[in-house]
Amino acid sequence: MKTKMKFLFISLVALSLLPAFNSCKNDDDDSDSLVGTWYYRDVAAGEIKTNSAANDAIIKSYVAREGVDEYIGFWYEFSTNGTFRSSYKDEKPLTATYTYANGFLTFITEGERDKETMKVSVASDVMTFEKDYTNRCSNLSQSELRDLGVNDPGSFRVTKAIGKINFLKR
Question: Strand 114-123 vs strand 104-109: parallel, antiparallel, or unpaired?
Fold first, then answer.
């Protein structure tokens, strides 16, 4: 009986220690979740903050159009060695490197001179880039703002304009 109790006690202690040896790594931070080929799927405006609800709607539409214009026809192919290839429609693919940590993906091209970092999440077979369009929206001319439908371009302010660009894994 003592042997059975001792075995049971040791088994329970061993089982209770298993979580200590299990990785706490978040799937969003796992570069392996990026590995594969991803094709543009769609764009949606994310968080938009301007000085009015009417301007929020205008900028939401603008960000979605900009994302489509910028990414439609794009594909990315991520490898386990930290390199990626990408191309727009039928153009010759670009090969460069990337890093992925804490939910942020950094594309590194032209040596170390050209870097672009954005928040990225992967859920099953969908990868989402969260691209910040705030500066682009802030720098729209008064004429461009009027063309978009902003009633008072002189008082227009944008503090946040995020686009969510979705890619499907194939």
Answer: antiparallel
